[in-house]
Design a protein that fits this description.
The protein is of the alpha+beta class. The chain has ten helices and nine strands. Keywords: DNA-binding, Transcription, Transcription regulation.
């Protein structure tokens, strides 16, 4: 199934959302949500942006992501298979994590707020449990998720994604960020200046610039360029449009600027990039 915008879904407190993504053209939007998220990469490789950090992922990696931390997965292999599990503290019953029997899981989830990575060398049993959580529903799903978290708490972590949980957005900050990002995504492929975005959201240019960088890890110009290069890459791969048309439709004001930016970001000229991908 194609990726769904998770942050638009309602997840009840006493439940766990589980879904599988299988696609050759995967790109999640920059988003956050109040739930923890477990993502198991069954196949494919790419880059996870998590708060201000980046992590190259590969087949077999398992991520446990904290609530309200903006993130996105950028698939590079054109062969993405993953399983995602979303849940909050009260996925069993309210206050469950405060009881004595759940202290190990509570400690694990407190650590997971900073983002954790388990690598492909993890025991097969953990990935089997993730698949079980996906296939079950109701109480059975909750029980298997509980068992999975207990197993995680006993395993060595290969990497902590963030040194502090300070990258987490409060819901109000994230709502504003989502509105700004939606506006940028909608208008990225025309002439778009920071001043226009600042005016749109009743912010000063400097305030918006600081807000944007603090909450995405990118400057406004870096993020805009990133969107335009990815749009150009998609057009080069999926269409036969002349490179000058690709440049214009991706928001670049000149072919020379496009060629220079694309070469710097991708390590290949647009022509070389198209030729290489068509031959693979």
């Amino acid at each position: 199934m194609p990726h769904t915008d998770v942050y638009k879904r309602d997840i009840y407190k006493n439940s766990c959302l589980a879904f599988k993504t299988v696609t050759d053209d995967f790109r999640s939007t920059w988003h956050a949500h109040p739930e923890f998220e477990i993502v198991y990469i069954e196949s494919g490789f790419g880059c996870l942006h998590y708060g201000k950090q980046q992590h190259i992922y590969q087949k077999g990696d398992i991520f446990v992501l904290g609530p309200w931390v903006p993130h996105e997965f950028l698939e590079k292999s054109k062969n993405h298979h993953s399983i995602s599990l979303l849940f909050n503290n009260d996925f069993i019953i309210p206050g469950f994590l405060d009881c004595e029997l759940a202290q190990e899981i509570k400690a694990f989830l407190n650590k997971a707020r900073m983002g954790l990575v388990f690598n492909a060398k993890m025991e097969q049993s953990e990935t089997d449990i993730i698949k079980l959580v996906l296939s079950q529903s109701g109480l059975d799903r909750a029980i298997h998720l509980l068992f999975l978290l207990r197993k995680f708490s006993e395993q060595p972590v290969s990497q902590v994604l963030s040194n502090t949980p300070e990258e987490q957005c409060c819901s109000k900050t994230f709502a504003k960020l989502q509105d700004i990002l939606a506006f940028i995504h909608k208008n990225a492929y025309r002439k778009l200046l920071l001043d226009e975005v600042a005016t749109q959201f009743y912010m000063s240019r400097n305030h918006l610039s600081r807000f944007f960088t603090e909450n995405t890890g990118f400057s406004f110009s870096q993020y805009l360029l990133k969107l335009r290069i990815e749009r150009a890459s998609e057009l080069l791969l999926k269409s036969t449009k002349p490179i000058t048309h690709v440049s214009e439709e991706s928001g670049f004001d000149s072919i020379s600027s496009f060629n220079r930016s694309f070469l710097r970001e991708k390590g290949l000229s647009p022509r070389e990039f198209r030729k290489q991908l068509k031959n693979t």
